Amino acid sequence: MLRALVDICGPAFARAAGAADAVAGRRATFVAAPATTNTVVDTVGLAAERGLAVVPRGSGSKMDWGKRPLGVDLLLDTGRLDGIWHHDREAATAEIGVGTPIRAVQAALALSGQRLAVDPPSATATLGGMLAWNESGPLRHRFGTPAAQIERISYVTSAGDRAESDGEQGRPGIGEIDGVLLSALVRLEPLPAARRWVTVPVSAAREVPGRVAEIRALDVQPSAIEVDLPTPAGRRPPGILAVLLEGDPADVVQRAKRLATGFGVNAAVAPTAPPWWGRYPFARGAVALRVTVPIAELQAAVYALGDATGIPVPIRGSAGRGGAMHAVLPGTLTAQRVEGILDAVRGVLLARDGRCVAIAAPPEISAHIDMAQTRDLF
Q1: In this predicted model, what pLDDT tens digit does every residue of 261-278 receive, in sequence order?
Q2: What average pLDDT is seen over the chain?
Q3: Which of 45, 176, 179, 361 has fewest C-beta within 10 Å?
Q4: Residues 308, 356: Cα–Cα separation, whole Å
């Protein structure tokens, strides 16, 4: 098998897996890094012929997310499937290889005064990893999820056949694709000339819906509305609400001033984001939850998490349209305890049109609890 992979990918791009080549604690057997569509087709086709399980890997920032795979025979590294393959500035579209880091995409597009309107919290996220998990940052409030900004996806099926999908007319959406993503044709947005963040303290989750109502009443056209509850122990205030405004410099300054005046004397305006903005409240080794709930029910979600856990649970994320928030539980809890917390929170949210799923956890926990799958996040 290794000789065959070397023949397809080249001697420097196929090898036996090492200790670091694992998915949710399950070590792979081989690693291959094909560089073209044809070599991906050949690699996946070879694995299919031999009955081997293939798992794609970009930067590896989310390899511990989700349900543990039954097998990881071959890690298919997408690092060589990178670059902006076609950029149509006038049509505001670009076809991008899935192994391209989002930061590199944004830097290249900025030279043309454009951007992909996404900001995944994973610092090293590639286009493929972001799309596979529909990983949204604050800009989701204005522009929607990454999946919503895709015109077309090119991929290789698990049988080794090349295919395309626009998610319409019976074709699979990104969350339903069984195979390896190759590239995506994405819609682009103009790069904003100015940005301002307006922040205001909130003492509890129950204050957030009222603040969001104020933002809407003032018609300041926010690009994002984020909340951090509670802030780290010992810091005051207990929570912070932050609003991102973008656009022409004079207009942005005027809208920021109007919003800050509406918020009152405790509001602040800054040209840079708060330190926690666009970052997950968890680190590797913790139990990470994704909570989706109407903003009017945020207090119920926060209370349910704290009540079930017995300690304040940090929760951070979108307080605006279609918002998803993330919460963190200690990685030292037992799997049984985590499952009990999930059941209790889900019971509270069920009647409130909300959801709570575990997206990441240490292997000793994720192997025994109901973990999210990619399709759960679309």
Answers
A1: 999 999 999 999 999 999
A2: 93
A3: 176
A4: 13
Cβ-based neighbours of 174, under 8 Å, separated by 6 or more: 131, 132, 134, 147, 150, 153, 165, 167, 181, 378
Tokens 């192994």 label which residue? 99
Q: Give yes or no for a cis peptide into 11 (omega within 30° of 0).
A: no
- Cα angle value 154/124/43 (rounded, 5°): 40
Identity (one letter) of the amino acid at 168? E
Is the Cα torsion angle 36, 38, 39, 44 positive or negative in sign?
A: positive
Cβ-contact 154, 160 below 8 angstroms: no
Question: Of 359, 370, 356, 227, which is closest to residue 288 (Cα–Cα)?
Answer: 359
**What is d(CA 342, CA 123) in angstroms, rounded to the nearest whole number?**
27
Both structure tokens of 286: 């913790």
Q: Which residues contact 355 (CB under 8 A, 6 or more apart)?
A: 290, 291, 292, 293, 346, 349
Is-contact 363 336, C-beta < 8 A?
no
Residues 6+ apart with CB under 8 A from 241: 199, 200, 201, 202, 208, 211, 212, 225, 226, 227, 319
Q: How far apart are CA 292 and CA 318, in angstroms?
A: 9
Q: Are 20 and 63 in contact (CB under 8 A)?
A: no
